[in-house]
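Feature request disguised as a bug: please show the residue count (275) next to MltA-interacting MipA family protein in the output. Example input:
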Amino acid sequence: MKKSTYLLLAMAMQAVFSPPALAQDGRTALVPLPSLDDFTRGEDGWAFGLGLGVEYETAYEGSDEFGVEVDPAGAIQWRQGDNIFYWAGEALGWRGLRSDTWLFEATVAFEEGREEADSDDGRLDGLGDTEEGTELVLQARRAFDADWRYWLDGRLITGDNGNLGLFGAGRRFGNQNDGSGSELGVVAVFHDSERANRDFGINARQSAASGLSETDVGSGFRSIGLNYTYRNTINENWQIFGEVLYEYFGSDIQDSPIARSNFEAEAGVGFIYLF
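Example output, currently without the count:
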């Protein structure tokens, strides 16, 4: 998708989601969740954060190979009251707070495909590369009270390569309102057959080329996962963050020859400088 299209989308979302701002009661972050970065310091206008993150993670979904990856971190954000528009790497989106306990988010993002070379042990040889694509992510979070101590989450990810549905719950630790502290979430993931076979299916051509058994994966339950997020504001300009993710696959996924492990895991740490 061209950058001009992203800019037009941002302007359209701004026009639709710009009601009068709700009182924030001195809250610095839009919502005080460490998993949702907010670089605005509670002020309307532009905010910039730039940094690096280091992740130790599985080479691809279902892999038993691990590696280290260094990626840029941060975002360009623009806040107007209870709305934040952002550009973070290959994602452009909006999130907005409603009635102090509802958070909505819409994001257009680029999704990278899987490559045969992702497996150093050659376990993807003959399967070819999966296609890259564009995704639309729609999310709603509902807090039990205005301090966002406990919350429920629902997400729909739809795009060129199928659909995912995620349903979760979380708890925030710490009393800060600036988005620092830590957070623990649990999520159940479901997929349609198109997405399932994109990631774990093997068609006749791939089977002949790879020697792996032909596999068709149906829609339904994909995985159950735990996610821990940490964010600490060191001073006015520096943040440090960390994340640990564990995802346990359902039996249909484990039966696929692509899944060399019954889980996926990653751990990361990084820093961001706020301008």
